[in-house]
Amino acid sequence: MKTLLKNGIIVDGTGRERFQADLLINEEQIEKIGEGLEDPEAEVIDIEGKIVSPGFIDSHNHADLTILDLPKIEAYILQGATTLVTGMCGFGITPANDLVNKYYQNIASRLLSVNPKLSDDLDSFAKKVDAQGISINLAYLIPQGNVRALKFGADERPANEEEIKFMQEVMRKNMEAGAFGMTTGLVYPPGSVTSTEEIIELAKIVGEYDGVYMSHMRNEGAHVIDVGMDEVFQIARGANCRAHISHWSVISSGTEEMTPKVIQAMTDARESGLEVTADVTVYEDAVTPLAFIMFNTWVFEDFEQNLTDPASRKRILDEMFEKIDNMFLQDAPLLIRLIPKFILKRIIFPVLGKQVSILSCPNNTEIQGMTIYDAIKKLYPDKKIREGLLDLLRDEEGGIIITLKTKNEEKGIIPLYSLPYVCSCSDGILVVNPEQNEHPRNYGNFPRVIQRWVREKGYISLEEAIRKMTSLPAQILQIPDRGTLKEGYKADIVVFDYERIKENGTLENGRQFPDGIEYVFVNGKLTAKKGEHLGVLNGRVLRHKSTP
User: Is the residue at 353 inside a domain?
Assistant: First the structure.
């Protein structure tokens, strides 16, 4: 099967200037790029004036958790994505055993409102994908949380030498199966209770296979450099591996002052010889499960009972305050930090409750879009805010996804994004329940970059934006034959109308497809046309080729 795209404007993903040419697809590959191409066997599509680029590669995505339930993955295909990098933040579909399954039932599934069909290892997951079919390509990294839970479940004690060797063997098996590296989520259990030294021992296996270590850092706020970034650098040095900072940002009241400092810290690390890269999200808000950042692990072991029993509730509230103190108040203005703790405990929950909005929840979906404060007042009018918060989390089974503005686009995001080694990502997760809202990044992340950052704001050229969404993540992951429009490369291709491309989703209704995406090809097959998914399932699980 051949397809000839005629009269397109080629932006090839390398960053070089666009040019007009035809492009011939033969089966899975790009056979020819040039002017005046003809082939009597090819179906001809005239795309005059439209941009032809490599399919977008999302360098940070959680789609593996629901891909077997949503194999067409329309939200990403219809925004031009053809490859998703998954297994992020220390959580993922594999590896798994009975302990991991229990861990996900008690914690991850409850909080993320998903019910992933876990697999024993990467090979078994790939076989499930091959048998069922998916529309998009997946590059998978080994989640450290899964690896630890294989041996420990929810137990938070340090690993001994024998246990570290066990986890290293798990890493080795999955790296040999084609994993691209390892991820950590160091603000979430079990990453949050894992020592730097233990992570280094696992990352050594990643280094042996020339994989990449990707980290949701231990701190992205007041201590983003001395705790967050410095630990990433320490792991990269100790393990002799490449490293990547996931959704790099400065979540601080002093963004303008801090941003040049984090850039300098990264510059110093790279100049010292470390291979360190990063990605950024393209929205100013943070999105996370509320209970993940509020609760310690023990709360989930008997979730409903712990959130009902008065003694447990008091302990939870005390621990929640300490977490909020560490997360939000360390770089607060001096006047706030001088307020006695017993007073802060009374006022902090109402204050933050008015700043944090509920993006989605599984049960009382009518509160989606409300602030936590307003939702509690609606559902529990007779309760104090902090007591109502515990009731809300209990009644939603933990599954409240929140959004909070934490970043400044012009002062905090664009200076990081503009660096040549930083790509853009969605950090998205698709939920199966159609009644639940989703963040607009799941539907319009890549169109937003082109619409807002290129066309409207002029922060960056189209050629460089495409490079950051295609060849750069392919280079970071070491995917050899994707991310660039080049003869002999895989035909993962998106065709879009530069003047029309735009996202349509909002925080209130994220489930809206973008405008301007004309055609999407995955491994040479036309998968979407004029905003319509054609039902094609031609994606696959990609494999890292490096061997020790």
Answer: yes
Number of domains, the chain: 1
Given a contact cutoff of 8 angstroms between Cβ atoms, the answer to whether 10 and 21 are in contact is yes
- How far is the C-alpha of 193 from the C-alpha of 202, rounded, in Å? 15
Instruction: Bin 535: left if φ > 0, else alpha if -120 < ψ < 50, else beta.
Output: left
The reported pLDDT for the residue numbered 138 is 98
Specify burial of residue 70 (Cβ count, 10 A radius: 0-12, 13-18, 19+).
Answer: middle
Residue 156 backbone zone (phi > 0: left; psi -120 to 50: alpha; other: beta): alpha
Q: How far apart are CA 429 and CA 253, in angstroms?
A: 28
Can you give the three-state secondary structure of 149-170, one letter per residue? HHHHCCCCCCCCHHHHHHHHHH
pLDDT for res 252: 67
* Listed residue (127, 257, 21, 254) closest to 541, CA to CA: 127
What is the CA 243 to chain-centroid distance, rounded? 16
Q: Domain for residue 504, yes or no?
A: no
Integer-rounded Cα Rg, in Å, for the chain is 23
Among residues 311, 386, 286, 298, which one has the least CA distance to residue 346? 386
For residue 414, how far is the Cα from the chain centroid?
18
Least confident of 134-138, 312-316, 339-343, 516-520: 339-343
Q: Which residue has the tokens 């091959």?
A: 130
What is the structure's pLDDT at 325? 66
- pLDDT for residue 470 is more than 80: yes
Helices (H) and strands (E) in the chain, counts: 20, 21
Report the Cα 47 to chain-centroid distance in Å. Answer: 32
31's tokens:
């056979």
DSSP strand pairing (29-34 vs 42-46): unpaired
Other CB atoms within 10 A of residue 81 CB:
29
Could you list the residue range(s) of the whole structural domain that residue 346 is in? 298-402
DSSP string for 43-104: EEEE-TT-EEEEPEEESSB-GGGTTTTSTT-HHHHTTTEEEEEESGGG--S-S--HHHHHHI
Half-sphere exposure of 539 (CA within 13 A, CB side): 32
Q: How confident is the model at residue 33 (pLDDT cuts 50, 70, 90)?
A: very high
The answer to whether residue 320 sits within a structural domain is yes
CA 156 vs CA 146, 165, 188, 212: distances in Å: 13, 17, 12, 25
Q: What pLDDT is recorded for position 435?
A: 87
DSSP 140: E
pLDDT for 490-515, tens place per residue?
Answer: 999 999 999 999 999 999 999 999 99
Give residue-wise pLDDT tens across range 71-87. Answer: 999 999 999 999 999 99
Residue (of 187, 200, 418, 380) closest to 292 by Cα position:
187
Q: Higher pLDDT residue, 176 or 321?
A: 176
* Residue 112 to residue 289: CA distance in whole angstroms: 7
- Helix extents (H) in 240-360: 255-271, 290-294, 303-306, 310-324, 334-337, 341-353
Answer whether residue 328 is part of any domain. Answer: yes
